[in-house]
Design goal:
alpha/beta; 2 domains; Rossmann fold; single chain; 12 helices; about 325 residues
């Protein structure tokens, strides 16, 4: 049985470290394990691979892998894998949502604190050697307390559930929208709305956190109309996918102070081009897709994947299986 590990990314942290495949070989000597750091000539390795560890796969590559039975993605998002041939096949897809959830949730809370306490403004004043106490109070919205504020969650998966627990533990009210209301309220969530009542949730929220998978229903979800129903003192935080926010509409909403502020970790185009007007908005906090960065990343990947690999070899149900029809 062959396991093929193939990941190539411009950002080195996303690439699989050498020790990963070596440790798997020691723990699972019955497997033939091939680890690659590029896709050049990968068709030959795909031909007899039963298990594939990767972040991307093209339809023609999938067609060249007749023995493939399981694909594991070291990402939470798997939209890049869900082309029709794979979706309609019996190949199982798993993801790494529980690897990224804890650290991304911490990032969300950091962004909420930064927006509430006007930390970006303080940093700019520090760079200018300005004691800006009056400016911090008078320019834009006042610094805010978080206790008693309302967080509106779009997405209550691995990230959203953890944000809800942390925010509610600080005395914040957490509300959410989810596709299946009948599944109830996760811990820390005070009220759950059906997706058809998204606008009502937005109207009540002081901080709107977008942490949903990218599917047809969430593409362009936050548009001019949705921004228009938010409170003027509200802030938007996106750690989901850039394509879920209409950036032109958000730009206008921030310029005109239709909403108070935003924090974005993901963008329609990455890296964000140097000439993007988003860079110049003083009420926008930009982090360069760093919400998931942690020194513990590959240790967590190994723990999750090796556990699933043991399950696979023992013909036990896998964890973190993606519903290919739903897209998450």
């Amino acid at each position: 049985m062959k396991l093929l590990i193939v990941v190539h990314h411009r950002f080195d942290l996303w690439n699989v470290p050498t020790w990963f495949g070596q440790r798997l070989s020691q723990e699972f000597p019955q497997l033939q394990i091939t680890q690659r750091d590029n896709y050049e000539g990968v068709a030959g390795d795909l031909r007899d691979a039963e298990i594939l560890f990767t972040i991307s796969l093209r339809p023609e590559q999938f067609a060249a892998a007749p023995m493939l039975r399981w694909i594991h993605a070291p990402t939470a998002a798997v939209h890049q894998l869900l082309f029709s041939d794979l979706v309609n096949s019996e190949v199982v897809v798993t993801n790494s949502r529980e690897v990224h959830g804890p650290v991304v949730a911490e990032h969300v809370m950091a962004l909420i604190f930064a927006l509430a306490k006007k930390i970006p403004q303080a940093a700019r004043l520090q760079q200018k050697h300005v004691w800006g106490q009056e400016a911090m109070w008078n320019e834009g919205g006042h610094p805010r307390e978080l206790a008693g504020a309302t967080v509106g969650m779009i997405g209550v998966g691995s990230i959203g559930r953890r944000v809800a627990k942390m925010a509610s533990g600080m005395g914040m009210r957490v509300i959410a929208v989810r596709e299946h209301v009948e599944e109830g309220s996760p811990e820390g969530v005070g009220a759950v709305f059906a997706t058809s009542f998204l606008d009502e949730m937005l109207k009540q929220s002081d901080y709107v956190v977008l942490a949903a998978p990218l599917i047809a229903a969430t593409r362009g979800l936050i548009n001019a109309g949705r921004l228009a129903v938010m409170k003027s003192e509200a802030c938007l935080i996106n750690v989901g996918r850039g394509a879920q926010v209409d950036e032109a509409a958000l730009l206008e909403a921030l310029r005109t102070r239709r909403i108070a502020g935003a924090a974005l970790d993901v963008f329609e185009r990455e890296p964000l081009p140097p000439d993007s007007p988003l860079w110049s908005l003083e009420n926008l906090l930009i982090t360069p897709h760093t919400a998931g960065l942690t020194e513990k990343l590959w240790r967590r990947h190994y723990e999750l994947f090796s556990d699933n690999l043991r399950r696979y070899l023992a013909r036990q149900p896998l964890r973190f299986v993606v519903d290919k029809q739903k897209g998450y």
